[in-house]
Design a protein that fits this description.
With about 240 residues, the chain is an alpha/beta fold. About 20% of the residues lie in helices and about 25% in strands. It has one domain (about 10-239): 3-Layer(aba) Sandwich (Rossmann fold). The termini are close together. Bound molecules: glutamine.
């Protein structure tokens, strides 16, 4: 895509062995108006994509620690380089775990504090709307999207947490109930530049009217996650 034009942006979606949600992520990109491009974990070439989504699932069976093996995939070398150059990268759930393991985002994901897998419709507040993936939301907007994981507890030392808060890098915060014991109710964060964002809940499962979760106040359209994908397209046009 040529910067500043309305050409269709090409958004890569990386598949690792054990990835589950790559097809939903590709569908979300398409519904937002972008062109999804399948990327394979063993291929170190990003094929000229404009942005990358690391989707959810159980890459490498979550062996050792979720994301700990995926981080060494050839595709991740390319993603790390591209992210450092400013390319938008979104990690959803297992993708967020991979981003922390790859040190593109600080902190770690550990077992949910209650030690159970959790699957629910989760309310979040969007606290930072200046990132590549959230610029189409209103500051403080509450959105409802699915959450499903076992290793969803975000932990970091207090200095890192203070830094994230102070720099406005807590992008999403759980509302109503903290589903996994994450420090300071943090559901998602960004890097300092705002091009790399990771979160545990799944926006790609709430992009189509009639199929996403209801909102807090009763049935809604269920498309609260679509804004992630329209946001990145908007950020690429502005770039
Ligand atoms: N939905 C997912 O991506 C699952 C993430 C991760 N493997 C976990 O269970 O914690």
């Amino acid at each position: 895509m040529t910067a500043g034009t309305l050409d269709t942006a090409r958004i890569g979606v990386v598949t690792f062995p054990g990835t589950l949600d790559d097809r939903d992520a590709a569908r979300a990109v398409r519904l937002a108006g972008g062109e999804p491009v399948s990327l394979w974990h063993a291929d170190g070439d990003l094929h000229g994509v404009d942005a990358v989504v690391l989707p959810g699932g159980f890459s490498y069976g979550d062996y050792l620690r979720a994301g700990a093996i995926s981080r060494f995939a050839p595709a991740m070398d390319a993603v790390v380089d591209a992210a450092k150059g400013g390319m938008p990268v979104l990690g959803i759930c297992n993708g967020f775990q991979v981003l922390t393991e790859a040190h593109l985002l600080p902190g770690s994901m550990v077992k949910n504090d209650h030690l159970h897998f959790v699957c629910r419709e989760q309310v979040l507040a969007v606290e930072n709307t200046s990132t590549a993936w959230t610029n189409r939301y209103a500051p403080g907007q509450r959105i409802t999207i699915p959450l499903k994981n076992q290793d969803g507890q975000f932990v970091a030392d207090d200095r890192t947490l203070d830094e994230l808060e102070g720099e406005g890098r807590v992008v999403f915060r759980y509302q109503g109930w903290n589903p996994n014991g994450s420090r300071r109710d943090i559901a998602g964060i960004s890097n300092a530049r705002g091009n790399v964002v990771g979160l545990m809940p799944h926006p790609e499962h709430a992009v189509e009217a009639g199929f996403g979760p209801d909102g807090e106040d009763g049935p809604r359209s269920g498309t609260d996650g679509l804004g992630f994908f329209t946001s990145v397209l908007a950020s690429l046009v502005r770039a």
